[in-house]
Amino acid sequence: MREAIHAAATVAATQNALPASAVKLINECSIEGRAAATLTSAAEHRWWLSSASVEDALSVIAGDAINIIAGERDGKLALCASPTCQAAFFDTSQSRNSRWCDMNTCGNLQKKARFNAHRRKNLGISRMSLKCSLSI
Exposure winner among 43, 120, 123, 127, fewest CB in 10 A? Predict the structure, then answer.
């Protein structure tokens, strides 16, 4: 089911039609379990499992995936801007324009690479300037 959720979320983030095979598997897992959505007195959503079966756990995961992919949660599906990652992630930032799935890994790597490229470029210009001034 992990692959099906990944495939559906990735396609949903690009606002294209969901793959039928992924939708079928997610729906099957959602239906097979005996998990039920419940409401607490604090107005919070909780899942109730009638047993500790794998089917019930997968049903909860599938139900949450359905809510996110269908756009029923406050947030936006996006794809990581890192060329080595491109994972689908759920952006809950206030502006809904996060670029990376995780700032501490993908975001940091991208910013570090950009900084180093800029530094190398400036260092090259400085060396060229120094070389020109020494030859004068």
Answer: 43
